Structure formats: structure tokens, C-alpha cells
Known about the structure:
Layout: E1 3-9, H1 16-29, E2 34-37, E3 40-42, E4 46-48, E5 54-56, H2 57-65, E6 77-81, E7 86-91, E8 94-100, H3 101-107, H4 112-125, E9 128-132, H5 150-156, E10 160-165, H6 171-180, H7 184-187, E11 190-198, H8 202-216, E12 220-225, E13 250-255, E14 260-261, E15 275-280, H9 283-286, E16 291-294, E17 296-297, H10 300-310, H11 312-319, E18 324-328, H12 330-335, E19 338-341, E20 349-352, E21 359-376, E22 389-402, E23 407-412, E24 417-421, E25 427-430, H13 439-453, H14 464-482, H15 485-493, H16 497-500, E26 515-519, H17 525-538, E27 543-547, H18 556-560, E28 566-570, H19 583-605, E29 611-615, H20 617-622, H21 628-636, E30 643-647, H22 653-658, E31 661-664
Parallel strand pairs: 1-9, 1-10, 2-9, 3-6, 10-11, 11-12, 13-15, 13-16, 16-18, 18-25, 19-21, 26-30, 26-31, 27-28, 27-29, 29-30
Antiparallel strand pairs: 4-5, 6-7, 7-8, 14-17, 19-20, 21-22, 21-23, 23-24, 24-25
Amino acid sequence: MAKAIMIQGTMSNSGKTFVTAGLCRVFKQDGYKVAPFKSQNMALNSYITKEGLEIGRAQAMQAEAAMIEPTHWMNPILLKPTSSMGSQVIVNGEVYDNLSAQEYYKMKDNLAPEVMKAFNHLSEENDIIVIEGAGSPAEINLAENDIVNMGMAKMADAPVILVADIDRGGVFASAYGTIKLLPVEDQERFCGIVINKFRGDVDILKPGLTMLEDLTGKPVLGVIPMEKIDVDDEDSLSDRLNQKTITEGIDVAVIRLPHISNFTDFSVFELIDGVSLRYVTDKKELGDPDLILLPGTKNTMGDMEWLIESGLEGAIIRAARTTRVIGICGGFQLLGKEMHDPDGVEHGGDMRGLGLLDTKTIFKEAKTRTRIHGHISEEHNIYNLDNLSVEGYEIHMGTTENLGEAIPMITLEDGRTDAYMTKDGRVWGSYLHGIFDNEDLVFALVQDIMKEKGINPAENHLSIAEYKEIQYNKLADLIRNSLDMDAVYKALFGEKEEVVRCGGKKDDTSGKGLVHIYCGDGKGKTSAAIGLAVRAAGSGLKVLFTRFLKNESSGELAILDDISQIKVLHLEKSYGFFKNLSEEKKQEVRETYLQLWRAIELEILTGRYNVLVIDEFMAAYKYDLIPKEEAIEFLEKKPKELEIVLTGRNPDEKLVELADYVSEIKKVKHPFDQGIYARKGIEY
């Protein structure tokens, strides 16, 4: 069974989600199987798992940080507010009911078995569970039947770290008050306090920290500085929603609907040079943007009423004469001419939409929840993207139909039409959350706008997946450098921590990736390296598998390419024995090998890999096909946690000296000596 540690906060937006994600990545880097868990989440940003079940988007992000697939076990209860007094209640990924706050409070104790069922499932599959609380444990009016803060800590028998936000002020009072308002038995569960979002010189803070420790009897485990790290946020308290600045280039305006959901759909625009993203709540703020984005909403018809009352309806319609408008999910529904809710699923009755698409939406009780692929219809070729594949996930109640003049834009793999657009393609909508994570689509859209404005389109080579990995690793570094990780591990494992800890900052060897060499004249060097790569991938580690000398026809690449945890880099063709080549060919080989070496260096710089395999490294090194001094420096100064595997005959003495493992595979007998040449599937 897994060990559990819980992260609670003095208030909402104190940094619980952030710290939980960071610890997930730290524990993963240290060699543990780790999973996030939040028993009850109130969020409009949600995510659909591979099983078609709905969880909070924050837990999906934390699962990414832990380098595992998100599952519904990580968030057994999700509350999606539909009004100031009620929420849609989702249990184990499926809609349970729409309940008022009082109705839910009366029945939530009955959900404790479902919470523990989910927790126990994760516990059986992992070494560590990082539990996130909700709001504050000091909401004493909600303490009875609590299943998300101290109630959850008791059920999981988890020590608790309290996170306090110093940026908002009153950090000492909030930390002290949170602890002291609780019963003594709950106070004893706190293993320490973390001060979050600090700006300035920590030495000035130290006297206060000492006094806080004396007053509470709890150690301060660390002070986390305010640092910009880009991971997905929780809902309406996100600082993203306060962005108002317009910079030179493309102005993208997101309409901040009262029931806005899944605004993380648009975060990618913030990463593109020459694009500014801002959130608009008033018609005066709208101005003259180059692109208007309508996000998802948990109450489409209610938010349409708000658009009408605020005057934004008219402002958006007028802007659409010259401005592009795109809607996702609820925003897609808003773009249409008609909305009908005969069964009172959302609002009841009939209502007009913005009328920018010739569509109507009929709301239904059945909720569509699925992850799905599709392609942009070839005949329309929007942004010159010929039959581009797209993917995302759907979370919506209702269907949207063509009234006649809308143009089908995306065909899904199950045959459904997902998206519609105007004839000129300047207004379109889709149900696919995550559609802008399709890099070709978002860059083509941005470049199309830039060309229209007379701006020279920038070359963007952004990989969203790689960008996320860089951010998670930055977050892990921040957590390691800020917290007393020895104390955290001790809280988890007790005095046995010295034995069970696999990595981190304990000593010079903990958390250190080692260097392997497989050498010798016997068969099996590459096979051993591939075996290690597969083992690492099976344990959730990210592997970069690279090879010199051999081309893409080697049989193992067909398998390695299918393993999501492994990325393969290799030469496009083989050249034969180097010593037999002409001088012209030798120069071509040198240039080709150098390009591959540079590609390896760039991939490792992303910080996303745990293991690097360089097959047939020794030959490339021997013939100076890669810069020897650079190679040695690379091995000497490699990322601490990176495991490196090198193969090939006759390693240089310097390489042997640098290696931690040297395994010689010696030929005793080989069929080649009997005239039996390499056989497909066995030798290659």
C-alpha cells in the first residue's frame, strides 16, 4: 500500500494545486510510482479520461506531472457549479445529479465509501499518493462529515503540509489561525508549514518564521519564491483571467463568461511570439481585437442572457464584420442562431444565440463525454491545412445542428460532424476541448491573421508537450530548492526514510543517473540497451533512444516507435564501414553525425528525459564523427538525474573512467563464423 501525504491550504488559491504537482514530479524523479488525489473538487475546468470519465482539470495536470495517465480514481467527486446555489455533482466520472449546496451537504457523508474506494485503488498501484485538500480545513462550519480536508487526512492516515500565501498578506495570522482553530488531534497531523509566493529577501522573513514555529509548534518546511511557472490553473481564481494588456502584434480577446469553463483551452496562445491574450468582461474593454474567443460555459443560456444584458452581444456581432470569432463547446453553442432547452436541462425554454453561425443547439439530459480524433474536412482546407488530423475531448449536454447555411468543418472518427464554420471560415465553432493543442492548427491560424495584418509571420517551432515537460521540471526544481525534502520524506516514511528514499538531495549518489557502457565483440550490446530502454519506459520513465551507424530498417524500431514513453532519433541512411568510404563520403558522414549529435543535445536540454541511449556510440567517437571533447564534457556535466547508456566495441579509456557500469559482452561462438549471416528479426 502507498504512503500518503496531504497538501492543505490556509485559503483557496494558496498554492495547493501547484505544490501537489511539484511534489508529484519530485517523487517521480526520485524513482517512486506516484499519483495525485483530490477527493472532492469544485471546478469548471474539467478533463475527460481515456475511459470517457470526467475529472477536474487540475488532477489531469498533476497526473502529467507524475508522468502517468489521468484516471477517474484521482478525483472521485467533482462539483461543477451551475449557479450561485447549486452544482452538477459528478461521482466516479459520471453525472450523479444536480443538487443545491444544502442537498449536497446532507448527502456527502454517503460518498465517503466511494472516496476510499478510489483512494485504495490508487494506493494499490503506487508508492506515494499526494492528496490535495480544498479551500481551508479551518472552515469550522463544514467540519462535520468532512471528506476533503482533515476528514480525508484521517481516512488516509496522512501527514499534512499547510501551504500559506504570503503574497495576499496576513500569512502569519492565517497559518496560526488555521492550525489553532482545529481540534488538537487534527493539529497533530500537521508535519509542517510552507510559505508560498514570497517576494524579496528571505532573511528578513526569518524572525517571523521562528516565531510562527514557536507559536504553532510546527516547523516551517520552506519558503517558495514567487516564480513564473506555466502549469494549468484552477478555475476562477486564476491570475490568467486578470490579463488585460494589449501588446504589439495579434490581439486575442477571450470573453470571460460568468460560468466560464476550460479556459485552459486557450493557454497556448500565450506561448506564441507576437500574440497577446486578454480576458474581457465589458463591452468597453472589447475594442478591436484580431480574434475573439468564446470559451466553454456550464450555463450556456444563462451566459447568453449576460451577453445581452452587458451589451457584449452587440459588440461581438459588430466586431465579427471584420474580426474572426471562434467558439469552443459552450462558446460554439453561443455562436448559433437558436438554443432550445425543452427539458429544463440548463435554463428551460428557447433563446436566441449570437446568430454568427447558421446552427441551433438542443439541450438534452444525456452528457457527451469522450476523447476523440477527427480531421478537418478536406474540401474546405481551412488555413491551407489539407485534411489535418485533430484530437481533443468533448464534455457537453446537447447537440448542435446545421440549419442549412453552416459549413461542416471537422469530421470525427465515429462519423459525426463536430464543427461548423461560415463560408469564409472567419467564424467557426467546435466541441473539442484541446483542439488548440494541435500545433499545426493554432500556428496556421495565427500566421493567417499575421499575413492579413501585414505582419511577417514568425517561425514557431513550439512543441506543446515539450514545453509542458520543461515547466514541470522547473516546478520540481523550485520545490526541491525551496523545501526541506528530507523532512518531507521523513513525514512520509518515518525514520526508515534513510533506507527507502531513492533520490533527491540526501547525498551525492541519491537521485543520480548513472552511465552504462555495453561493449565487447559479442552479440547483444544493442539488445541489452533496448531491454533497459523498455524496462525504463514500463516504469513510466521518458527515454530518448538514439543510434549511429544503423538505419531505420532495424526491426526493433517498429516496436520502440509504438511506445509512448520512448522517442527515437536515428540516421536516415547507413553508410557502411567508415574506413572504406571515399573522402567525400566521409565528410558527408561527419556532417550527418554532427547534426544527429546536436539534435541529441537539444532534446536533452528540454529536461523531459530520464534515460538516454546512444547505440553504437563508440564507433562515432573513435572516428571523430562527433566532437570528442564535447562528448566528454556532455558526460561529465550531464543532468544529475539522467541515466545514459552507450554501446559499441572498444570504449576509450576516458569513457571507461567516466562510466559507472561497464559490461563486456564477449564472443565465445557466433554463427557468422559458420557462414550464417544476419537474420531479420534475430540479428536486426
